Amino acid sequence: MSPYNNAARLNPSNHPLQEGGSGLRTIVVGAGSAGTALVRDLDRTPDFGLLPVGLLDDDPLKAGQLVSGAPVLGTLAELTGLAVEHRAQVVVLAIPGLAHQRVRQLATAAAAAGASVRYLPSFLAALRREVVGSDLRSLDVNRLIGRHEVHVASSDVRAVIEGRRVLVTGAGGSIGSELCRQLHAFGPAELYMLDHDESNLHRLQLDIWGEALLTDDALVIADIRDRPRIQQIFRDLKPEVVFHAAAHKHLPLLERHPSEAVKSNVLGTDNLVEAALATGVERFVLISTDKAADPTSVLGASKRLAELIVQANARDARNLGTGVFSAVRFGNVLGSRGSLLSVLAEQLRSGGPVTVTHPDVTRFFMTIEEAVGLVLEAGRMAHGGEVFVLDMGEPVRIVDLVHNFARQVQLEAEEVEIRYTGLRAGEKLNEALFSEGEERLPTAHARIYATVADSSAGPEDLAGGLTGLYQAAAGNSDAEVRRRLAELLPGYRTPEAQPVPALSAPYPDGF
């Protein structure tokens, strides 16, 4: 058994630096003299804004020890997992003289967990002077999105959450888990966390409450495809606010398995909306994707149908004077599990090459904090039927993001090999936030826009069309699923995979 196993279970909220402290949750890599001095200095200068929650070190003799009041959580190899587990927002590399290759590996490991990285210049060792906060230099992952991060959620969100029974589907995922953490801080009467993966739920409860006895009603194991089970949960728990994050989201996989996309993304949403209407849910927010705008993929089509289900039922709910149903569209979320950033970090850590579909491909990007803030604000602002979208500025060229990331983890241009693989079936060269027929409307938030379905949105017989679609998916008839998706969404067509175009000269790499 590793000597760090027990240390990793330490609750960082118990150590002295956490008492009444505030600042960005920070893991310090290195429990030697530099790391020890750094933790001490950060304790003395809280205005610097970093709050150590623990350290990492490969010396087994330091396992479980407190270093300047902070626990040694584990080894350097465990950085990504421990950064996620302890919700680290910043990782400081405090081992002066660390080999360049090792610095690169640690920086990419931290970035894969969605944490920004700061490091101590190696010349500190030569100068032989004590480490102080001003020696820190920042590696800002947020620069990758090509704009300033938007602080979306307002304090007014508390009025929607406090004292209410709140249910989150897909709670164990990257977005769902961060959503649960922030919801917990708003004081709901109950926070129900639903997922089909019991291990994810166990980790989430341990993270939020510091223990995971698995003996209360907060954790709900269920599959959103199972209509009777979902109806039972809503009858028993009577949630008042629902955030629906559960979904299949990997575009190439869903192109190969369209029946599975329909079962989870469309039927699962339908089941939840039906149960919400039947039990008087006050607010329901669906998490969608920018790929639902003029969809060209099974993922986008399935999410567009989920939006239409929410919008159709929002009209019914308004007429009955019951709940408020709305949706939000995300761009690519940096730091989420399986996102471009995590794949990029792993490819760089292993020495490459980095794979990019096309030299000119662009995407909209947002941070996990922005994504969760958008969901919370949508829950507050919605009147029913809206699809909310964050103003994410200009789309970012993937090649530029790769190079920006590489520079920040101290890689030279010649160290980054990019291999272009060609657009896969269903992929767009450039995404859009709104469909051509949708009107972009301002909201009470300066950086959030909305579109509202008119009476002609969607097919005339949505319910009848969905019945046929569900039957095709239940029979795993992928060809029939595609045909029915096209019937329900006129204009939807999955483009074939496109090879990389021949380049007359080496593509400019932006370094």
Question: What key phrases describe this protein's structure?
Answer:
511 residues; alpha/beta; Rossmann fold; Polysac_CapD-like
Any idea of the CATH class of the largest domain? Alpha Beta
CATH homology superfamily of the largest domain:
NAD(P)-binding Rossmann-like Domain
Share in helix? 25-40%
* Continuous helix count: 16
Main sheet characteristics: 9 strands, mixed
User: What is the number of beta strands?
Assistant: 22
Strand order of the largest sheet: 10-9-8-11-12-13-18-22-21
Give the structural class.
alpha/beta
- CATH structural fold name of the largest domain: Rossmann fold
What global shape is seen?
globular
Q: Under the CATH scheme, which architecture of the largest domain would be assigned?
A: 3-Layer(aba) Sandwich
Strand content: 15-25%
- Overall mean pLDDT stands at 83
| Unreliable segments of 5+ consecutive residues | 5-20, 122-133, 503-511
**How far apart, in Å, are the first and last alpha carbons?**
46 Å
**Overall domain count:** 2
Radius of gyration from the alpha-carbon trace, in angstroms: 24 Å
